[in-house]
UniProtKB/TrEMBL annotation, chains A, B:
Residues 2-79 form the GST N-terminal domain. This is glutathione transferase. Residues 81-202 form the GST C-terminal domain. Belongs to the GST superfamily. Sigma family. InterPro entries: Glutathione-S-Trfase_C-like, Glutathione-S-Trfase_C_sf, Glutathione_S-Trfase, Glutathione_S-Trfase_N, GST_C, GST_superfamily, Thioredoxin-like_sf. PANTHER family: GLUTATHIONE S-TRANSFERASE, HEMATOPOIETIC PROSTAGLANDIN D SYNTHASE. Its EC number is 2.5.1.18.
Length: 202, 202
């Protein structure tokens, strides 16, 4: 049997969708969490100097969305045909565009630049949330074609992180998104993971 | 038979990998090119206010990488198994990280911010090029497992655009990447597309 080892910081961020997807798919994995102080000496071992990485049967794989898609296929979370898969991928990339805009602003240290990036991110935020809300409403409570996919799980996992960045629930004014996230968090495997995961600030 | 209509600006950018992939896969498509002046009145018709979009049998699909992956599957350019597909996806996302860093810097109008973004992009550039060069060298002249995939085609198509941004060939000091790009441009279907495509500045 294959052994899965996921290595990331001890935060939600880009690692959490993979942890959710592995849990939902019933795949046992070693959940390695690197402290920020230890990162400089590990960085050069990583394929592109970044985490998360998945070690699978001794080989390292990188890029969070590539890893997530691979796990999603194993968990039957990638649609029923290639058209659905394309819609799931498009949704994932739009969700990630929003995550990236908010993250880039949040971590910027230069105050003038941070203010500018904040403007960009906070212009995007309501536009994207309204689009996502309409998409979930139109698709029977899920992002694509009325059934659970890794787009729903990605959004739910990112919301853990975005709640920190936004200091509040990103879905609070969007009832369809709120219901979707509650539904994903209540899936037995994901619920069990959330209950046992380390408590982290972000 | 399905009808494919790709709509994007009259530039290479995010549309060109899809045009290359459709050509390589032998799929006939309508290559609609929007002038910048006409964009404001079209923008609100697009799923996320962005292009490229692919219209397939009357339905609009968005996000360039999602569309590219869909076409890559049709053209047998997505590896032979799920592990290869994951490596192709990871390569694609790393290539796109570099493209995005360079593009964000290039189009920024605020001089101070542009200078800062330039620093970030030009720190990334040699690191990524060296990593890509080593990867292609290790994989027999292609990005993944010694055979053509949509990662090779994406990089080649982006090089049209990046040559403009960098005012020179991105591969000039990286012989493996240079050979790869020449090989992709010489594929009969892609060569034919390049010869007949509209000449554009970027």
């Amino acid at each position: 049997m294959s052994t899965y080892k996921l290595t990331y910081f001890n935060v939600t961020g880009l690692g959490e969708p993979i942890r959710y997807l592995l849990s939902q798919s019933g795949i046992k994995f070693e959940d390695v969490r690197v402290e920020f102080d230890d990162w400089p000496k590990l960085k050069s071992n990583m394929p592109m100097g970044q985490m998360p990485v998945l070690e699978l049967d001794g080989k390292l794989y990188h890029q969070s969305k590539a890893i997530s898609r691979f796990i999603a296929k194993k968990g039957n979370l990638y649609g029923s045909n290639e058209l659905e898969a394309m819609e799931i991928d498009a949704t994932v990339d739009s969700i990630d565009d929003l995550r990236q805009a908010l993250s880039t602003y949040y971590w910027e240290k230069d105050p003038a630049l941070k203010e500018k990036l904040k403007g960009i991110a906070f212009e995007k935020l309501p536009f994207y949330l309204d689009k996502f809300e309409a998409q979930v409403k139109k698709n029977g409570g899920y992002f694509v074609n009325g059934k659970l996919s890794w787009a729903d799980i990605l959004w739910t996992a990112y919301c853990d992180y975005l709640s920190f960045v936004l200091a509040g629930d990103p879905n609070k004014d969007h009832p369809e998104l709120k219901k979707l996230v509650e539904k994903v968090r209540a899936l037995p495997n994901i619920k069990a993971y959330i209950e046992k995961r380390p408590k982290t600030q972000l």
